[in-house]
Design goal:
By secondary structure, this protein is mainly beta. It is built from 7 helices and 44 strands. The chain is globular.
Length: about 850
């Protein structure tokens, strides 16, 4: 046993050893040691015992495919297809979990997929055709822990919920330690866990030719499910903190684990499985009318009849702002009321679920754990008459219009155009009940703090203001308008060129914001332009109610400044009683415009394609998880180039049969028949945002835990010349850090979203192919392929977080330049890869 030390009472930096340098290990601590791998005999690292981590883990994949085609009659054909694939792998530690420093508890990941498709084609008459398709697809994920130590019988540790702990030991997290690199963790996972998304679809399409009209009439239906467990730690998570002075800690978090000085224990009451459902019915009609021999008009209409998501067993709970009653939540402890835990609810009057509705259920207290109702007798939830908490929006018409015109009627030129509206039903991570999985009170996480022993855990945990997801009470379906106009022309030497204008506009796209962010200071800001918040301001605010320069602060200014300095924001939020409220809404918009040009050749020894796109995509949220906004109440300021915007993109591909030793015979077989191929890509980089990652990242003091705290102020030219290579800092410096300064206090900074661009890329892939034929039935294929042929370093990201500002106030201060990775390249595409292949055909 290595010597362990405990903190002395006389000084924060003095420690005394345990009696006889021996720790009396608690039985729970002894059991938890099984989560830490034993040292590999004879292996050391810097003189300390070490362990060999996982080097490689098995991975298998297989696929079975069955296809049956049967001509029932000359006019009726039945096709059946079945595909099954199975991917099975293992990961080094608990996947998607609490994090682990070790690789002794692995995850087995099994992901089978199944697809059935049955198709019946009927040629009813020469001008009447019908196609009916029925399909079933399903993807599954099964996660299982490997080598997870079981929970010992009669495990002498208290719990908050008597749920059996899933037969697993608690996960552990050791922090703020002077040893072990600051701490370590071991994760026992939330497994077993599974997910399945079976989808049943049916489509019938009737085609009728009447004169110059080719008409299609049909309907598409889908019945979709998402059956998924939440990912709770029903066994709990133990946290040990060597800086804790309340227990007090021994001064060594590993010693705390051994003897049972627990800084925090959190536990979820149950692992729930959610059964989400939705239905789609889309009738459609299309008429392709050949008005003249060289002009065709396309007209169509699709009715997207969308049903809302719903959870089959009414286990989805949603925060609805209109159901929230101000003043009806429990009081929040400021640290002066027993048990003196700042930020926790004070047991007694008030409803900790104020504003929470049960989707399609009766509400009440029947699903609230007794641990909560015992401390908060008024705990209850409301009810929503809508099964998915969303009032449906069924009728969504989507017209389409297009044309094709051959100006000269000789088949050598075509002009095409079109416009259409396309609705999307959204996926499970957006504003629907699938985003409410794991929501309180059905699934609840409680915590207890500062236990002097494992046996003192239990007897009631503390409940904190909830951080929840929230969806609207009315469905708004995203849709995109798309249009294009292009001209295509056949050129000499079998080349075909196309020039197009392509555009689209997205409306009601998915976005997130914080419904419980504090309001920013809009008037009376005591900070002058260029004056940042400092530690002296925070100290003076606490002591004197003023800035360090003596300027008094009161009201909202004092509140926001206190939060920027680290005060608990929850007592000051708009919806007191909740933390962050992640509001998922279909309110974002986008616009895309592009000029596209292509040249293709598909005849003879040379097959090639050249494609160039000049485009610009603008939006105020690039996806549902986009957290680049700084102010939830003014998302318009987030409008900028999209995260994925590529202004210039050129791609050239070719396959060329070398014109040497053609014909037959030995020389042809050995030296002829070679093919070279390649893909060359040249493109500009995507965009990224510069953010404020210094000590006062929440410079506005609004506690926006869903988005970005703040951005810097722009005080110079980011593109000014800088020294590229900085000794001791990895990656070249690509922009000028001196252009950015800490933002003015109580502001978000004035740098916009996505103002800088990641490095562009020029890449060459090249291949060489040759077939050696021995007989008509036997041949040997040789293939040599190179990716990044010239082994160019191609950077693919930039560190956009400003983490330093020296005495000059900017990130360009010499004290920052020598150590900070701000605006340095953060990664690169793969180096050259070369592979050879031989295939014998017989």
């Amino acid at each position: 046993m290595p010597r362990l030390w405990t903190r002395g009472r006389g000084s924060a930096n003095s420690f005394v050893g345990f009696p006889n340098n021996t720790v009396t290990i608690d039985p729970v601590g002894q059991a938890l040691l099984s989560l830490i791998p034993k040292a590999t005999p004879g292996l050391t690292n810097n003189g300390f015992p070490a362990v060999v981590q996982t080097v490689s883990l098995p991975e298998t994949w297989r696929e079975e495919l069955v296809r049956i085609d049967h001509n029932l009659t000359d006019n009726y054909r039945l096709t059946f297809r079945y595909i099954h694939d199975s991917w099975q792998t293992q990961t080094e530690n608990a996947l998607w979990g609490n994090g682990s420093s070790f690789e002794d508890i692995n995850t087995e990941f099994v992901g089978p997929g199944t697809s059935f498709v049955a198709r019946l084609n009927a040629n009813i008459s020469p001008t009447l055709l019908n196609e009916f398709v029925a399909s079933y697809t399903a993807d599954h994920i099964f996660l299982t822990a490997l080598h997870n130590p079981p929970l010992p019988a009669n495990f002498p540790m208290g719990v908050l919920f008597n749920n059996g702990q899933g037969g697993k030991l608690p996960a552990i997290s050791l922090g703020n330690n002077v040893a072990y690199g600051g701490g370590f963790s071991a994760d026992t996972g939330y497994f077993p866990w599974n997910n399945a998304n079976p989808v049943y679809t049916y489509r019938d399409n009737l085609t009728k030719i009447v004169g110059t009209h080719t008409m299609q009439l049909g309907v598409y239906t889908a019945f979709a499910q998402k059956n998924e467990q939440n990912s709770p730690y029903i066994q709990g998570i133990l946290t040990f903190d060597s800086s804790n002075t309340t227990i007090p800690s021994s001064g060594n978090s590993f010693a705390d684990l051994l003897v049972g000085k627990v800084a925090q224990f959190s536990q979820v009451n149950l692992q729930a499985k959610y059964y989400n459902r939705y239905r789609i019915v889309e009738p459609y009609f299309q008429d392709d009318w050949r008005m003249t021999k060289n002009f065709t008009l396309n007209l169509g209409l699709r009715l997207s009849l969308y049903g809302t998501y719903r959870e089959r067993y009414r286990h989805a709970f949603n925060f609805e702002p209109s159901a929230f009653t101000p003043g009806a939540s429990p009081a929040i402890n400021d640290g002066t009321v027993p048990p003196f835990q700042e930020g926790a609810f004070i047991a007694g009057p008030g409803n900790p679920f104020n504003g929470i509705l049960q989707c399609g259920g009766t509400g009440g207290a029947s699903l609230i754990p007794s641990l909560v109702t015992g401390s908060f007798p008024g705990a209850t939830v409301g009810s929503s008459p809508e099964t998915g908490c969303l009032k449906g929006h069924l009728f969504n018409p989507a017209p389409r219009l297009g044309f094709a015109w051959d100006p000269k009627g000789n088949g050598k030129m075509a002009v095409r155009g079109g416009y259409g509206i396309f609705f999307e039903h959204t996926n499970g991570n957006e504003a629907n009940t699938e985003s409410l999985e794991g929501s309180a009170p059905y699934s609840l996480n409680a915590s207890q703090f500062n236990m002097p022993s494992y046996g003192s855990i239990g007897g009631g945990g503390l409940l904190f203001p909830l951080s929840v997801n929230s969806i609207p009470n009315k469905a708004i379906w995203p849709y995109v308008q798309q249009w294009h106009l292009d001209a295509q022309k056949e050129l000499p030497s079998h080349f075909v060129a196309t020039v197009s204008y392509v555009g689209s506009k997205g409306t009601h796209l998915a976005q997130q914001r914080n419904l419980n962010q504090l309001f920013p200071v809009t008037s009376g800001n005591p900070f002058t332009p260029g004056q940042p918040i400092t530690s002296a301001d925070c100290n003076s605010l606490s002591a004197n109610g003023a800035l360090a320069n003596g300027t008094p602060v009161t009201g909202q200014v004092a509140t926001n400044l206190g939060i920027a300095c680290g005060n608990d924001p929850n007592p000051s939020r708009p919806n007191v009683g909740f933390g962050n409220i992640t509001r998922l809404e279909d309110q974002a918009n986008s616009i895309y415009d592009a000029m596209q040009a292509t040249v293709r050749r598909t005849l003879g020894d040379l097959t090639m394609s050249l494609a160039y796109t000049y485009s610009h995509s603008i939006d105020n949220s690039s996806d549902r998880y986009d957290g680049a906004f700084v102010n939830s109440y003014n998302l318009h300021t987030n409008r900028a180039s999209s995260d994925f915007d590529l202004r210039h993109n050129l791609a050239v591909s070719y396959v060329y049969a070398l014109p040497i030793y053609k014909g037959s015979g030995l020389m042809h077989n050995v030296l002829g028949g070679w093919q070279v191929s390649g893909i060359t890509v040249a493109q500009t980089g995507t965009h990224f945002s510069v953010t404020n990652g210094t000590d006062f990242g929440d410079a506005a003091g609004v506690a926006n835990g869903v988005g970005t705290g703040s951005r810097p102020d722009l005080v110079g030219n980011p593109h000014a010349s800088v020294q590229s290579n900085i000794s001791g800092v990895r990656g070249p410096l690509l922009y000028n850090p001196a252009a950015f300064a800490i933002p003015t206090g109580l502001t978000f900074g004035d740098v916009g979203r996505n103002t800088l661009t990641n490095p562009g890329r020029i890449n060459f892939d090249f291949g060489l192919f040759k077939r050696f034929s021995f007989t008509e039935t036997r041949a040997l294929d040789f293939r040599w392929e190179n990716f990044n042929l010239f082994n160019h370093t191609q950077y693919n990201g930039v560190n956009g977080g400003m983490d330093c500002a020296g005495p000059s106030g900017t990130a360009g201060d010499p004290s920052c330049i020598s150590s900070s990775g701000f605006l340095h390249a953060s990664g690169a595409h793969l180096a050259r890869r070369m592979q050879f292949g031989l295939r014998f055909q017989f």
